[in-house]
Amino acid sequence: MKILITGGAGFIGSNLAKRLVSEGHEVTVLDSLLRGNKLDKETYSKVNFIKGDVRDQDLIIKASKGCDLIFHFAAVLGVDIVADNPVETMDVEVIGTRNVVEAAELNNVKKIMYASTSGIYGHSAFETTLSEEVLVDPRTSYAMAKRYNEIYLASHHEEKGVNVISLRFFNVYGGNQDNRMVVPRFFEQAIANESITVFGSGNQTRDFTYIDDTVEACVRLMNINGSHIVNIANEEEWRIEDLALKIKKVTDSSSDIIYLEAPKKRYDYEVERRVGSSDKLLALTGYKPDTDLETGLGLIYKINYSK
Ligand SMILES: NC(=O)c1ccc[n+]([C@@H]2O[C@H](COP(=O)([O-])OP(=O)(O)OC[C@H]3O[C@@H](n4cnc5c(N)ncnc54)[C@H](O)[C@@H]3O)[C@@H](O)[C@H]2O)c1
């Protein structure tokens, strides 16, 4: 297939590009390099790389010419960055997705796969494992824009028939991720034997999905047509304090763990509990993520630190 990945130099996009290239697909990556380039040398040499902004409509039209599929992953993310830049966050989401949809229509691209987020669940269904049927409760610019785009894409499917899948990723982690996210941040602190800084009590929970499982889910969903919203979750609920302890163990670190009050700007992002169900993914593809957290953290140590 001929495939465009927007945001394909980022953490998830670069891993996806590597997999797609290895399977013989013709891949174009469009990325503004806002966060540097995470494509490895070999993959970079095999993709058609375009440096540019998803908000540039002409460029998206050019980049998607002849494509069968667009993975639309370009986004501004990271709690502190989004909190400091809510307008740009929404801008990139809303204008970027509109451009992708219009370019797909113009170029007769049959399918769009969009990176949404588990963040749109917000504080909803606090007591339950989150399935796609749960009423969502987005409260941040980032989550609201993601939900808006999910609805926009679904309605576009109704009107024009293009196949659309919104992927609700649950805390994806793996090697080569930067420290905007909690897992690499704890790793850096543990490796340096500095205090590991937890915001709040550490009792808040998250569901961590290993990068290879995330890519596997994306690849399997490439074969599914129609209009779907699909959780990509590992279905394991971990306290953030336990994450810190596990990373301490994997890195054999002498770091202590300190508990800080979250800065005010983070309040809307602080969710006490988040664990997802991947039953729908399983029903659609016969697959669900299965790398347990300890194994995944061990893999990060091996990839990033054991040379
Ligand atoms: N990593 C996670 O845990 C997670 C969780 C939920 C959702 N997501 C979503 O998955 C997608 C990929 O996330 P990631 O972890 O790889 O993040 P990332 O920041 O590593 O990748 C995003 C990429 O988008 C690029 N980008 C940003 N603004 C752009 C613009 N205006 N034009 C072109 N490119 C631009 C960046 O340079 C970066 O390479 C994002 O849409 C994100 O919102 C990620």
Q: Which topology of the largest domain does CATH recognise?
A: Rossmann fold
CATH class of the largest domain: Alpha Beta
Poorly predicted tracts of residues:
none
Q: N- to C-terminal separation?
A: 36 Å
Mean pLDDT: 95
Q: Please give the share of residues in helix.
A: 40-55%
User: What structural class do helix, strand and pairing data support?
Assistant: alpha/beta
Bound molecules: nicotinamide-adenine-dinucleotide
Main pleated-sheet profile:
7 strands, parallel
As a whole number of angstroms, the C-alpha radius of gyration is 19 Å
CATH architecture of the largest domain: 3-Layer(aba) Sandwich
**Overall geometric form:** globular
Structural topology:
Elements: E1 2-6, H1 11-22, E2 26-31, H2 41-46, E3 48-51, H3 57-63, E4 69-72, H4 79-84, H5 86-106, E5 111-117, H6 141-160, E6 163-169, E7 172-173, H7 182-191, E8 196-199, E9 205-206, E10 209-210, H8 211-221, E11 227-232, E12 238-239, H9 240-251, E13 257-260, H10 279-285, H11 293-305
Parallel strand pairs: 1-2, 1-4, 2-3, 4-5, 5-6, 6-11, 7-10, 8-13
Antiparallel strand pairs: 9-12
Helix pairs in contact: 1-8, 3-5, 5-6, 7-9, 9-11
Bound molecules: nicotinamide-adenine-dinucleotide.
Nicotinamide-adenine-dinucleotide (NAD) is lined by residues 7, 9-13, 31-35, 53-55, 73-77, 92, 115, 117, 169, 171-172.
Task: Summarize the structure in words.
The protein is α/β, with parallel strands linked by helices and 307 residues long. It has two domains: 2-173 and 208-235 and 276-285, Rossmann fold, CATH 3.40.50; 182-205 and 237-275 and 293-305, UDP-galactose 4-epimerase, domain 1 (Alpha-Beta Complex). The protein has eleven helices and 13 strands. The chain has helices at residues 11-22, 41-46, 57-63, 79-84, 86-106, 141-160, 182-191, 211-221, 240-251, 279-285, 293-305, and strands at residues 2-6, 26-31, 48-51, 69-72, 111-117, 163-169, 172-173, 196-199, 205-206, 209-210, 227-232, 238-239, 257-260. The chain has a seven-stranded parallel β-sheet, sandwiched between helices. A two-stranded parallel sheet has the order 7-10. Strand 5 (111-117), helix 6 (141-160) and strand 6 (163-169) form a beta-alpha-beta unit. The two termini are 36 Å apart. The mean pLDDT is 95. The structure holds nicotinamide-adenine-dinucleotide (NAD). Nicotinamide-adenine-dinucleotide binds next to helix 1 and strand 5.
